[in-house]
Specification:
Shape of chain A: globular
Number of domains of chain A: 2
Order of helices and strands of chain B: HHHHHHHHHHHHH
Mean pLDDT of chain B: 88
Structural class of chain A: alpha/beta
CATH topology of the largest domain in chain A: D-Maltodextrin-Binding Protein, domain 2
Number of helices of chain B: 13
Strand content of chain A: 15-25%
Number of helices of chain A: 17
Largest interface: A-B, 45 and 38 residues
Low-confidence stretches of chain A: 1-21
Helix content of chain B: over 70%
Largest sheet of chain A: 11 strands, mixed
Distance between the termini of chain A: 83 Å
CATH class of the largest domain in chain A: Alpha Beta
Helix content of chain A: 40-55%
CATH superfamily of the domain at 81-151 and 181-313 in chain B: MetI-like
CATH architecture of the domain at 81-151 and 181-313 in chain B: Orthogonal Bundle
Structural class of chain B: mainly alpha
Largest sheet of chain B: none
Oligomer: heterodimer
Mean pLDDT of chain A: 90
Shape of chain B: flat
Order of helices and strands of chain A: HEEEHEHEHHHEHEHHHEHHEEHHHEHH
Number of strands of chain B: 0
CATH class of the domain at 81-151 and 181-313 in chain B: Mainly Alpha
Distance between the termini of chain B: 38 Å
Radius of gyration of chain B: 26 Å
Radius of gyration of chain A: 24 Å
Strand content of chain B: under 5%
Number of strands of chain A: 11
CATH superfamily of the largest domain in chain A: Periplasmic binding protein-like II
Chain lengths: 431, 314
């Protein structure tokens, strides 16, 4: 008896259909798992993975979540999407949690972790992670997710950092110091292109990208008690030196004055794609974006290096990322939330090539074997997270205003710093 | 004195006896039952939030604090704030320029459309549709569209066109002075359609016999506009001004997407400042106080404009 190819295909499809249908039924726009599961957990997530507009990413996370829910029979995850208005969304989670209507599990921007911890809304997750897993977290990550009682109250599942991108046809060698960067950018600007770009508009990205230059000198935004100190003593000199670095870039023409209107990494990527800039300060995730956006030859010209410092030995870079935390008192739900966090931190990160927060994960997944991850891992050694204090949003806001005023020529660095200090202290005293 | 003063009206309903019956009947026969659902809905969805905002303005509430206390701190912190002066100046220049621009441009387009219709020209419907298309675009998208147009990158749309015309590029968003102008242009572009529709409707109500009489009297176009059109448009212009004023004062999403309030605070207006106070700094009490200030400004300006309306239109 012979079996035709059509018959084999038909049989294969017939066998596969129930599986496909089952996977499709398991994941919908607002649910993971069977609708009639006896246990449910609400999970508020961003739109960059399970519900990503990128089909490949969404498909990969559907497979991960299907495995996860199959490993946890009897459970259903009710998914809730966050919009891109991060501050507003995070505030909404807090408000709802306080009213008893918050999600059981949620993605939290690392810059907001301190606020959530201070509000006492996060459930301890320590029992659901091993000591080895906790010890393997980078120190700044471990500090960020640990509360005053020593409990792990969130799992920081990926981190990011700021680096310098350069077109190697224009800037062959990575600038090591601020002076190197200015010189290289000035040479590019002489060719009619923009020397170096960076965010200096009204957005958290502007403040955070710039803070690496302040931290590289050992500057501190707040003291041990959380009181702002960036404007006094040695910190003042370091702050003004970092502002002067940006101001000199603009005043010398090494950077265009339009940086005061840049408040999005997309604008930087657009300039790189257009070939109109020699360098820019961006996030590590832009390495993959450059490869995906530019043609292969043009993308190959772009290289990445750690942010230059005032001297080659003084370096720092801001590290951000997202955490997953439980806001439920039910231990079973907290355990499920920890499981979701583990899913994102391991295979989820590997697929998206986001930077893991544990050293061992770099060796565990071959996706992190690329040369760029070697550079990122080295830069992470100089990583510095934002201070976990409630006054940080206002400090960031005032740095954004200060950069705009100084770089547009509306104020001197000293006057702008005095004004920022006054505003921050007013806000601090209102707390 | 005639007996008509005391004579019962033949068609009047019979009076019920007893005080309670009388009150109930008066209530039942009055407009209250009809108005009650609307009053209840307005009270629930409009008045209550305003009352709650007033209450919050006199507390030290923060978004993440569970306990709040009544306090004058939020209000007093604004009284001594030098930043608020800058914000109010920005708000004044942005609002005045945007409102005047929207009315002037809306009136110009409405006049053009009416004139074209009278001349039986084709394309007036297309013109009205194009103008209205800007109005249906969400404000946040409007800000993003203009951010792309105003981009100062070498490939920015408007600056590229200027370069092709031999004109030096303009620092639309990075120069503090130009940034406010850019925000006003983006707002006018979107809001003009609203004015155009209101004024177009008002223009259509003006009796054409007036223009015919003026033409017989050899009145020049500007005289017809000044002595016929404008006086007849006055109520519509004032109503338009009131509505646009309120919308512009409350507008923050276009500027949020366009400049974020920068560079520095160059384009930060009161509504955006209140938004940032609540959702970035989490100061609920202070944000509520700023919202109250915005409400007072809106009500005051609306009252002033209402006084200019003809008596029968108020």
């Amino acid at each position: 008896m012979t079996i035709s190819r059509t018959s084999i295909l038909t049989a294969a499809l017939a066998t596969a259909m129930p599986v496909v249908a089952s996977a499709e039924d398991l994941i919908t726009r607002n649910r993971v798992g069977p609708p009639d599961a006896e246990n449910s957990l609400t999970f508020r997530l961003t739109a960059f993975d399970l519900y990503s507009a990128d089909d490949a990413t969404a498909e990969a996370f559907r497979a991960l979540f299907t495995d996860f829910i199959n490993d946890n029979p009897g459970w259903r995850i009710d998914t809730q999407l966050q919009t891109g208005a991060i501050a507003q969304e995070q505030a909404r989670i807090v408000e709802q949690a306080r009213a008893g209507r918050g999600p059981d599990c949620a993605m939290i921007d690392s810059s907001q972790l301190a606020t959530f911890k201070e509000a006492g809304l996060l459930a301890p997750m320590t029992p659901f992670f091993t000591d080895d897993e906790i010890d393997d977290l980078f120190p700044f990550v471990r500090d960020g997710v640990t509360d005053a009682d020593g409990d792990v109250v969130a799992w920081w599942w990926f981190t990011d950092l700021r680096v310098l991108y350069r077109d190697t046809t224009l800037v062959p060698d990575a600038p090591q110091t601020w002076a190197d960067l200015q010189e290289a950018a000035a040479q590019v600007a002489e060719t009619g292109l923009e020397g170096v770009l960076f965010n200096a508009g009204r957005d958290e990205a502007s403040a955070f990208d710039w803070l690496g230059h302040f931290w590289a000198q050992g500057g501190e935004l707040v003291d041990e008690d959380g009181r702002p100190v960036f404007f006094e003593g040695e910190n003042r000199d370091k702050f003004l030196a970092a502002v002067a670095f940006y101001a000199d870039l603009v005043d010398s023409g090494a950077a265009p004055r339009r940086v005061t209107a840049l408040a999005s990494y997309d604008d930087l990527l657009a300039s790189a794609a257009a070939g109109s800039t020699g360098m820019f300060i961006g996030g590590n995730w832009m390495y993959a974006q450059i490869r995906n956006t530019l043609d292969a030859d043009a993308a190959a010209n772009w290289a990445v290096s750690p942010l230059p410092g005032p001297t080659p030995d003084e370096r720092a870079t801001g590290t951000g990322g997202w955490a997953i935390a439980a806001l439920s008192d039910d231990p079973a739900k907290v355990e499920m939330c920890a499981g979701i966090a583990r899913l994102y931190a391991g295979p989820g990160n590997a697929f998206q090539r986001l930077l893991p927060t544990s050293a061992s994960l770099y060796a565990e997944y071959e996706e992190f074997a690329g040369p760029e991850f070697q550079i990122f891992a080295e830069a992470l050694e100089d990583g510095q997270a934002r201070p976990g204090v409630p006054i940080y949003p206002e400090i960031s806001n005032q740095i954004q205003i200060l950069l705009g005023n100084v770089l547009s020529g509306s104020a001197t660095p000293e006057d702008a710093l005095d004004a920022a200090a006054a505003e921050v202290m007013d806000a601090f005293e209102r707390m | 004195m005639t007996d008509t003063a005391t004579r019962p009206i033949a068609d009047a309903p019979p009076r019920t006896t007893g005080a309670r019956g009388g009150v109930a009947a008066r209530l039942a026969s009055g407009p209250l039952p009809w108005l009650l659902p609307a009053v209840a809905m307005l009270g629930l969805f409009y008045l209550y939030p305003v009352i709650e905002a007033v209450r919050l303005a006199f507390t030290d509430a923060r978004l993440f604090d569970t306990e709040t206390a009544f306090s004058m701190r939020s209000v007093s912190s604004l009284a001594g704030s030098s930043t608020l002066g800058t914000i109010l100046r920005n708000t004044l220049s942005y609002t005045v320029a945007s409102v005047v621009g929207q009315i002037a441009l809306g009136l110009a387009i409405a006049l053009l459309v009416v004139r074209a219709e009278r001349a039986r020209l084709r394309g007036t419907l297309v013109l009205r549709t194009i103008v209205l298309a800007a109005w249906v675009i969400p404000a946040i998208a409007n800000g993003i569209i203009w951010q792309l147009l105003f981009s100062e990158a070498p490939f920015g749309a408007i600056n590229s066109a200027l370069r092709m015309a031999g004109v030096a590029p303009v620092a639309w968003l990075s120069d503090p002075g130009n940034a406010m102008l850019s925000a006003v242009i983006a707002t006018i572009w979107q809001g003009t359609a609203y004015s155009m529709i209101l004024l177009y409707a008002a223009l259509k109500t003006i009796d054409t016999a007036l223009y015919e009489a003026a033409a017989i009297d050899a009145a020049r176009p500007w005289e017809r506009f000044w002595f016929i059109t404008l006086p007849h448009l006055r109520p519509a212009l004032l109503v338009n001004a009131i509505l646009i004023l309120i919308m512009t004062l409350n507008m923050f999403d276009t500027i949020l997407a366009l400049t974020g309030g920068g560079p520095g605070r160059a384009t930060e207006i009161l509504s955006l400042y209140a938004y940032g106070t609540v959702f970035q700094n989490f100061e609920l009490g202070r944000g509520a106080a700023l919202s109250m200030l915005l409400l007072v400004i809106s009500l005051t300006l609306t009252a002033l404009l209402t006084l200019l309306l003809p008596q029968e239109r108020r």
